Amino acid sequence: MLVNLIGLLAIAFVVFWFWPRKGASKATPGNSEATIVVDGGVYEPERPVRPAGQPITLTFLRKDASACAQWVLFDGVDASTELPIGKPHTLTLPPLAPGEYVFHCQMNMYRGTLVVK
């Protein structure tokens, strides 16, 4: 009985920890900048929306001291950067075609998607 209870609590913790926090940020016409906070095992916002066809500037603010939060890597864009703790760090991406671009930590535990429209 106790083992079952511990198992259920562990499952609830995992679901809570990795459950998406909020929806996508809104794209502002002409605004290609976004600030993404890295804290508590998530990127916030986890689905920033930016306009296509212009360079995109992302400012990451890492509040989480875990080693997993140290790097952010973008799939399909050939971009990555190391994130210092407690200091804003800017990454500029080239103009991107409309689509979704996944970004994550080096261990794939923190995950987000840059939506380009």
TrEMBL record:
Residues 11-116 form the EfeO-type cupredoxin-like domain. This is Cupredoxin-like protein. It holds the Pfam family Cupredoxin_1. Transmembrane segments: none annotated. It comes from the Bacteria. InterPro entries: Cupredoxin (IPR008972), EfeO_Cupredoxin (IPR028096). It comes from Gallaecimonas pentaromativorans. The lineage of its organism: Bacteria, Pseudomonadati, Pseudomonadota, Gammaproteobacteria, Enterobacterales.
